[in-house]
Structures are given as C-alpha cells and as structure tokens.
Fold this sequence. Notes:
This protein is of the alpha/beta class. Helices cover 24% and strands 26% of the residues. It is built from nine helices and 17 strands. Helix 3 packs across helix 4 and helix 3 packs across helix 8. The chain is globular, with a radius of gyration of 21 Å. The protein starts with a helix and ends with a strand. One of its GO terms (molecular function) is oxidoreductase activity. It comes from Streptomyces fumanus. It holds the Pfam family ADH_zinc_N_2. This is Oxidoreductase.
Amino acid sequence: xxxxxxxxxxxxxxxxxxxxxxxxxxxxxxxxxxxxxxxxxxxxxxxxxxxxxxxxxxxxxxxxxxxxxxxxxxxxxxxxxxxxxxxxxxxxxxxxxxxxxxxxxxxxxxxxxxxxxxxxxxxxxxxxxxxxxxxxxxxxxxxxxxxxxxxxxxxxxxxxxxxxxxxxxxxxxxxxxxxxxxxxxxxxxxxxxxxxxxxxxxxxxxxxxxxxxxxxxxxxxxxxxxxxxxxxxxxxxxxxxxxxxxxxxxxxxxxxxxxxxxxxxxxxxxxxxxxxxxxxxxxxxxxxxxxxxxxxxxxxxxxxxxxxxxxxxxxxxxxxxxxxxxxxxxxxxxxxxxxxxxxxxxxxxxxxxxxxxxxxxxxxxxxx
Length: 368
C-alpha cells in the first residue's frame, strides 16, 4: 500500500491549526515556525508528516491522526525526526478542554517532549547538531508528530546507553521531581510522602528521596502490585489512596510531594509534622476543594508550608544541567525509568484511555 493510500481518510493539515496557528498560509504549532533559511537533511518545505491533533475536546475519541505540513525550524531552533514521544498527564488535561480558557483550541497538536535525531537547524544554530540524537522540549504542543521543532536551549544530546524511550520518560519528569524536593528543603532522615507515585514524576521522586537519605519514603498508589514495584524503587511504606498505610506507617511526615491534587489534598496537609512542607506539582486528580484554605489555616499552630511548583520557574540552564546529570545516571543504571508501554503514534487515543483509566505505571511512549 502506498503512503498516500495509507493516509486516506485522515484530516488534511490545511484545515487544522493549533491556537498558536496562523491562517496566512504559514503554520505554527506551539513553538513551530517557518524560517527563511535552514540547513537540513530532513523534510523540505511542502513535505507532510503524520501528527495527532484534538479534533474535539473531551474523551480520547476526540484525538485524530492528521496530515500536516512538516515543520521548518525558525532561527535558534532545530527540527527533530522523532523516535519516541512522551505521553504526559498535562496532555490529557489539555485534551479534556480543561485549559481552553488559557487559549487552547480544538485542532491543537499535543505533545511536549520528544527524542530522536536532528535533521534540520534554523539560522544561528551550528550545523554540527544535524545527525545528533537528542531529547527536546517542544512546549505544550508539537510533540505528537513525526517531526517536531524546539528551541536549541530546550535540546539536550543523549548519552550513549540511553534509549529515546527512556529519555522522554525521564526528561521532563525528573527535573520536576528534583526541584520539587529541593523546594521542600528535604533533609536526610526526614519522612517524605509521594502522592501519586505511579507516574513518571512520582517514580523518579521516590528514587531521589531514597538516594538523598530520607528516613522514610511513603507512597500512595492504587494496588498492592504497584506498591511492590514502588518498594523495589525505594519506597519504605505503601499507603492506599486515602492515606491509610496500616499501623507501621508514620503518622506524620515532613514533606509531601503531590502530583494528584483533587478533593483529598487537605487530608494530606493534615499529615504534616510541625514545620512540614507540602509541594504540589500537579492536579491530575482535579482542583482542591473550596475549603482548602480553611483546612490549611486550621493547621496554623504547626507552621505548615504550602507551595505550588512548576519547573517553568527554574532557569533553563539549571534545568538542563540537572537533566544531563539524570540522563547520565540513567545511562549507567543508577536512576531507573519505567516505560509502561510503547505504542504507535496512531494509537494515541488508546494511550489516553489507559491514562484516564488509571492503568499506567510509569509512562506510555508513542513511536511514529
């Protein structure tokens, strides 16, 4: 079957743009933009690529494979032919339409991190990058595609021994876990609770806390099987989603790293020891309840600290330095990544169904 025949029935890129897109004949998916001159070995202007876009907000059925113009890197950017694409929780949040008020529109091209080989560079980028295997952050769009572009400052060469799938499993999540624990001023001997530990952020945080000498590493998860896997990664106590870990679990903790948020968040604030620190890095379980502030103030005499944390507040060079160190550790086997499943790009909807059902341990990776 010819490539053209294989693509019959897919949406043509000329009718799909993201909220960053333009209608003047050029295309921009998030950071993607057409440059006036590039050095390349990859697709030329006018070439097409397969991508996955949001046809309709809501459930995963709204994701659709589309033929779009292949991106051309703008000055300071590189184009990556993707080998692996990370599927993250924020992708599901965008797909549901939760962030529509922030400018996301139907037609949005999902994906924020990819790994593969550089096939073109924009003005101002050394052509020696062409052919290198890299990890790249594409923003909150542009990753679910055969080619993606990223600013050079968001690109990192992969060390020998690290697969593309491992890179997109660790690349973004590892930095969040590192700086969240740093923001919490985690000290050796303290009890750390990781809420939502089955995702890639939580899995990395468990390992980092254990390596840093935490006195106890508590995790919340949905099953005994997952609990056993988390113990193998460094957890010392396994709690159910309500926070019950049996009589052996510490009653209080010094640090909570929370990926979940949602209505039970205040219950975990209540677990903080005096001078405890709570760092929220995600709300995949929804927003906290309306009385969250009241619950926090109710703990006033124990001097709790609460912070919402985004790695966007960390300078780019600092993020890249931590990421490079973590990639090196992973290549040596000193930091473990967990790839839940590898699926073809055109099965992105299946990947999202697995996430929505809570069946993912680690990260799903898409491959073109």
